[in-house]
Amino acid sequence: MITAPDIDPKAMALLDQLGATIFTAPAYSSEDALAKIAASEQIDAIIVRVGKVSAKVIDASSRLRVLSKGGIGVDNIDVEHATAKGIVVTNARYSNSQSVAEHALGMIIGLLKDFIRLDASTRAGNWEKATYFGGELRGRHIGLIGYGGNGRALANLLKPFGVTISVYDPYLGHNADFNGVTRATSIDDFIAEVDILSIHCPRTTKSFGMIGRAQFAKMKPTAFIVNCARGGIIDEDALVEALNEKQIAGAALDVFETEPPATDHPLWQFDNVHISPHIAGVTFESAEVSGRMAVENIYKILDGQPIDPQCVINPETLPGA
Predict the structure, then answer these.
(1) Contact, 167 vs 144, CB < 8 A?
(2) Least enclosed by CB within 10 Å: which of 69, 205, 250, 290?
(3) Are 215 and 191 in contact (CB under 8 A)?
(4) pLDDT in tens, 175-189
(5) Between vectors from CA 204 to CA 166 and to CA 7, what angle results, nearest 5°?
(6) What is the phi-psi region of residue 10: left when phi exceeds 0, alpha when psi lies from -120 to 50, beta otherwise?
(7) Sheet containing 88-90: which strands, arranged edge to edge?
């Protein structure tokens, strides 16, 4: 089963070549709808795109052996329940890191240059040539939370701009590559000094609400925050307050705690908030790679073939573990 939207056509062709029978669920199908398909078809594997793969969905098929994320984040999968049942959870590690990094960089530059507001102003008949001043990336201090594939890809894009980069990632070993960046021991090491704070960590019980009122109160009034990771890491109520009180200069968000967000979300009132619909990692290039990896990961597990351990979220479920 694929929890829609469809994966890349080349990946679909590979599934057909491998003789798979495919069931595609509508986008954001309910738990009951997904469980109904899983139960009636007794599926062997799920390629997880959007929607929640809960314990009920996992329990619906006695044949289920693999949950393969067609992307990186697995917060929409009940990994704990899958692990308890011996079901392998995989992801397409690093498949969209460049796409996410480029999107985050675009959002950073868009905030500094005020693209969205200037576009609306000019279309409305204004001509701000004599009064407008934008900002440059050169000389800015960038704080990155999370230094996995996405964070490192963004750092590599940023370095030629002549910026200072600080990184907080408590899960990386001391032998990890921090060339050209400064490693921080906590967010507080740099949050008061950064000009742009960009989030690239997974959403967990520890990271949920990590950026809230206390953190915004410490930030420069000229600072921007960008989130191309997962919704909920930024406390959205606290962000609204920070923008209202001008504790920060603006924000760019690709993700939200509830997706899709409400049509009357309070963030919509701000012209210094740039929004996209959780598509930072969605490009033709990344879709091809992630789709192929999602399919290959399934068949490596089903056929007992070696698999890249970095793509396995719960390695304790692998044979011989």
Answers:
(1) yes
(2) 205
(3) yes
(4) 678 889 999 999 999
(5) 95
(6) alpha
(7) 24-25, 2-3, 45-48, 66-69, 88-90
What are the pLDDT digits (tens) for 126-150?
Answer: 999 999 999 999 999 999 999 999 9
Is the pTM higher than 0.85? The answer reads yes
| Same fold flag, 2-95+283-317 and 97-275 | yes
In the chain, where the domains are located: 2-95+283-317, 97-275
CATH superfamily, region 97-275: NAD(P)-binding Rossmann-like Domain (3.40.50.720)
Exactly one of 80, 128, 136, 259 is catalytic; name it. Answer: 259
The pLDDT of 115-135, averaged and rounded, is 97
| Known active-site residue 259 | yes
- CATH, range 2-95+283-317: 3.40.50.720
79 neighbors 314 (Cβ within 8 angstroms): yes
Q: Which residue matches tokens 């920070």?
A: 242
Of 163, 139, 165, 140, give the one whose Cα is nearest residue 152.
165
Could you tell me if 215 and 207 are in contact, meaning their C-beta atoms sit under 8 angstroms apart? no
Which of the residues 230, 236, 274, 292 is marked catalytic?
230
The confidence score (pLDDT) of residue 89 equals 98
278 is catalytic: yes
State the Cα–Cα distance between residues 25 and 146, nearest whole angstrom: 32
136 annotated active-site: no
